[in-house]
Prior knowledge:
alpha/beta, Rossmann fold, seven-stranded parallel sheet, two-stranded parallel ribbon, 12 helices, about 40% helix, globular, binds nicotinamide-adenine-dinucleotide, binds thymidine-5'-diphosphate
Amino acid sequence: xxxxxxxxxTGGAGFIGSHVIRLLVKKYPDYRIVNFxxxxxxxxxxxxxxxxxxxxxxxxxxxxxxxxxxxAVFNDYDxxxxxxxxxxxxxxxxxTDPLAFLxxxxxxxxxxxxxARKAWEKDYSKHMFYHVSTDEVYGSLGPEGYFYxxxxxxxxxxxxxxxxxxxxxxxxxxxxxxxxxxxxNCSNNYGPNQFPEKLIPLMLNNIRHSKNLPVYGDGTNIxxxxxxxxxxSAIDVIFHKGRVNETYNIGGNNELQNIALVHILCDxxxxxxxxxxxxxRELITFVKDRPGHDHRYAIDNTKLxxxxxxxxxxxxxxxxxxxxxxxxxNEEWLSDITSGSYMDYYKRQYxxx
Length: 353
Ligand code: NAD
Ligand code: TYD
């Protein structure tokens, strides 16, 4: 079959990538979606078990640090577009191993654009390189203000510095070589399939098993929560309708202090488990703060909502309920992960024996 587009999605076995792939494979039967993923600790093909047999879906096990393999995939599948999500994505890991972030997030991104140049340079106008980035490139906010698309970059962690650098390279390739690009910078995602080292799945797993809930510092740091399925729909809209070489911020308009969020999770889980209200809150333990912990992130998404008509489909409480239900019903998914090397990481990070 001749596909209308052959889209290379990198990092498609991860949290956000798997939702993006599910949306594209189901919504666009005339596109072929090629999932290119190294299956690091964060990649999990079972995230896609419901669509893996669909004709317009292909999985290729590969690393974006291997330039020759990327070029071969361009040839094998006649890649027309890229949606690039593969990354090292956890701030705490970037503090202990910054070089891994530099390699995957910066060099890996440049490798992909080099392959794209080689394959597409005869006519860039038919092709798109869509780069998925983070609001963390803008740094940390005080109590007032928002991140806009033209907010100056001020990354504060090795993770955000590597993502900021990759964004700069994407703009440089558009400016220097004429590659057509789009960048989106989104706020903290939550929802099904998130690896349980991130705040929400970690808390849900610990609440369920009556383990301590480690809140960094005093818990007053603020994040702006975006439901992952809404993020995938925003990527779809920007990919198809966004202006070329533009940046769009994606946020859920859901700012919450970490401690307030943990309280919501505890209370919803108490209801779910039939426990007296307040029981799970007793598990909250304030632990040593993350070094250089960004205080507040908050996105202004006016450009996306007014220009492209996108809006989030759920409120934060609706999204949290859906998320809790998913983790509750998919205990096996979680227990497969919370064994082996994940537990070693967990013990190291939280100084457990
Ligand atoms: P994730 O850690 O869940 O998944 C990353 C995926 O990339 C995994 O499947 C992993 O196997 C793959 N990968 C890692 N290194 C690779 C390599 N060298 N070659 C090929 N594949 C590799 O991440 P996520 O939360 O789904 O994030 C996806 C993207 O969205 C990232 O670029 C991240 O920076 C960005 N982002 C995430 C959030 C969030 O809240 N999760 C917020 C803003 C931006
Ligand atoms: P995280 O999910 O790691 O995302 P990010 O650092 O990219 O924002 O953390 C979200 C917030 O929750 C952040 O302020 C750090 C905090 N946090 C805790 O308080 N305890 C934890 O165990 C974790 C993992 C995070």
